[in-house]
Structure formats: structure tokens, C-alpha cells
Amino acid sequence: MVRLFVPLPPEPSAEVALSGERRHYLLHVLRLEEGSALEVFDGTGRAFDARVTRVEAQEVRLSLGPARTAPPRRAVSVLQGLPKGDKLEWVLQKGTELGAAAFYPVATARSVVKLEPKRAEERTARWTKIVEEAARQCRRNDVPQVHPPQPLLEAARALTPGTTLLVLDEEETAVPLSEAFRACAPQAPVALVVGPEGGLAREELSALRSLGARGVTLGSRILRTETAALAALAVMAHLDGELG
In the Cβ-directed half-sphere of 13, how many Cα atoms lie within 13 Å? Predict the structure, then answer.
């Protein structure tokens, strides 16, 4: 069934009006018309059966059925060191498919990419659209939050209290990610730190450990930064019974 992302208030009315980009997308991309059925999801975990009731010059009206909610899942955040090129977009898209709840693009000591405030704002808007579209395609009813780029330690300090902080450390050989993840309480939030192409500086690792972080390894294979993030998410999804 056709799906459409529409942010809704906590108690939506039985009919909603769409204008602007969403009207255009519904009529000219999805090519729906009066009477067409679709599914609406609001990004918070709710989905609604919907139907196009009226097409007007400036808006489209949809009727909504009762809300459906998915069972709660563990919140896994990714603190991804800003990589070069479009690698972050890959992490955002595929990370959404693999169940990540939030993304923190972070500046690190070895990050090559530097974003000025205006550029950072533009990129955050683009990244948000990428995760919205990925959520629609993979049939998630929630949409991960994409935080504006910020320094690594600021992002780590901003995590929800009680979050277990795991750091992919290329020099760590004793603690597998799977072992550290199994030690987390069921449904307890987890955050994963992944360095950029050059990895994390030892000073950054020490600072993260002072915040309670634990260094972990994915094994003996050498993975690119964008591959490491996705491989780690796949491991955690498997251990939580959501994959494989």
C-alpha cells in the first residue's frame, strides 16, 4: 500500500488537509485521486489507514482511521564522525532501515569535513528528508531524529541519562560489541560512537571513557567508517531479535 509521512498532533482530527510539497507528492508523484486508499504514518510510531476524500486547488483532504502503534523497541543512537563525500547519507538511509532511533553527526579531531553554520543547517534539513523517506520505504512508523552537527563530546553529554555508550575502538581486542550489548538491560537505550575515516584520537577515547563509555570491537576485519556503523547496527538488531 502507498505510504505517506504526515506529522500529526497527539490527538489528530478525523480529517487532515495537506498542502504544498505533500499535496504535490500525493497527487503528482503517487498519482492518487479522490477515493484512493493509503497509509499515513506520523513519525512517532503511529500509522493510520487513510483515504483521499477531496482534491482542491490548494490542498488535499484525507480521512483517517484509528491509530495503530507498533511495540516499543530499544532506542539505539549513532554518533557518527563526519565522513567525506556522501557516506553519511548512506549511514542515515541504511541505519534507518536497521532500526536506529537517532543520529548525531559529530565533529572529531580527525574529521576532514568542516561545516559552517549555514551549511550545517542545510545539510541537516537534507539529512532529515533522507531518514523520512527511508522510514517510509522500509515501513517504519517512527522517523529517527537527525541532530545538527556538533562536537563529539557535546553529543555524548546530551544523550538521555542512563544510555549505555559504546565506542568502536580499532585498538580494542578484548570486548566484542555483542558481549557489551548483551550486558545492557532489555530495552535500555544504547548509543554507538563511530569515528571518521581516520578513527578517533586517543584523547577523545579517554574523554569518552571518563563519561562512562566502553570500548568495543567488531572483530578482526577492517571496516570503513560507513560499513562499521551499519555492521554494528545489524549485530545489535540481531541480538534484540529484530534481524536474522
Answer: 5
- Of 127, 224, 113, 211, the closest CA to residue 168 belongs to 224
Query: Hey, is 115 helix, strand or coil?
Result: coil
Class of domain 76-239: alpha beta
- Grid cell listed for 5: 509521512
Main-chain dihedrals φ then ψ at residue 123, nearest 5 degrees: -65, -40
- Nearest of 181, 205, 203 to residue 193 by alpha carbon: 205
Q: Which three cell numbers stand for residue 205?
A: 577515547
Q: pTM score, two decimals?
A: 0.93
Q: Could you tell me the CATH superfamily of domain 3-69?
A: Hypothetical PUA domain-like; domain 1 (2.40.240.20)
Residue 216 belongs to what H/E stretch? strand 214-216
User: Which residues in the chain are classed under CATH 3.40.1280.10?
Assistant: 76-239
Band of pLDDT at residue 137, cut at 50, 70 and 90: very high
Of 92, 74, 101, the C-alpha closest to 239 is: 74
